[in-house]
Task: inverse folding
């Protein structure tokens, strides 16, 4: 464990010094959010009109996309290293590791990146909440009015959970991305002797770091979707939920009688 910690600390320090990991995580999250909007639109066009089913699928598809974006970032790091390996700006992984046995040794000097291995798996960031019906001119054109207050509160909770989870992931980006890069380095066989000591997985490290934010967003989105599905079963989008809520409230207001 001590040897792994030495490797990990060294590689994480190099990655954090060479790359703007928080800025890169911000871009990854923005693209992931946009992918949720796209998945939501596609599923709606394909006929998945249920808010509960569609938003559940959007969550998991977006989370898979998040892992795909991390994988692309690892490929970017690999490409950058190959381009600069002959220059003084290259990533030099000078890992001083003692001899662990007759069959295990780690040479000094630069360790070339030969690919970021690991399994592509995962699970989530959040998607768009306003389904995007064909008659809607804007995904953010939601008539709040004086409709269902519970929907407004739940929608606010979803937005806050997305913002809170994003801030957390951006703050922890140096550790999350450098840990993923370190495990990808090992899984790709670039430190083959050290690989004998443990089984690295970049996807596993990312999952461990992002599962709690995903579960928070998942809980908030599913609560909103379930409430809307239960109280407004014919509504296909959040916009339609507010339209129906405002209509129901207007119909429930008793008419005033004027006598002369």
Result:
């Amino acid at each position: 464990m001590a040897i792994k910690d030495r490797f990990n600390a060294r590689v994480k320090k190099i990655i954090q010094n060479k790359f703007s990991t928080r800025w890169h995580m911000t871009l990854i999250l923005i693209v992931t959010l946009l992918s949720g909007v796209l998945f939501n639109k596609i599923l709606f066009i394909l006929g998945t009109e249920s808010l509960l089913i569609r938003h559940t699928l959007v969550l998991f598809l977006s989370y898979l996309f998040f892992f795909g974006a991390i994988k692309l970032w690892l490929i970017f790091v690999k490409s950058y290293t190959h381009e600069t390996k002959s220059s003084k700006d290259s990533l030099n992984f000078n890992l001083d590791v003692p001899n662990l046995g007759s069959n295990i040794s780690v040479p000094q000097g630069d360790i070339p990146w030969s690919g970021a291995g690991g399994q592509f798996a995962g699970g989530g960031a959040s998607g768009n909440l306003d389904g995007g019906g064909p008659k809607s001119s804007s995904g953010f054109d939601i008539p709040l009015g004086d409709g269902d207050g519970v929907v407004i509160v739940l929608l606010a909770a979803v937005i806050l959970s997305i913002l809170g989870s994003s801030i957390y992931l951006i703050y922890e980006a140096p550790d999350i991305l450098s840990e993923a890069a370190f495990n990808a380095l090992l899984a790709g066989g670039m430190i083959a002797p050290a690989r004998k000591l443990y089984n690295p997985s970049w996807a596993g490290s990312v999952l461990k770091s992002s599962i709690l934010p995903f579960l928070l967003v998942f809980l908030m989105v599913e609560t909103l979707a379930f409430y809307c599905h239960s109280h407004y079963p014919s509504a296909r989008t959040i916009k339609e939920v507010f339209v129906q809520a405002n209509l129901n409230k207007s119909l429930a207001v008793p008419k005033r009688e004027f006598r002369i």
User: Anything to note?
Assistant: Confidence is low (pLDDT under 50) at residues 94-129, 131-140, 193-197.
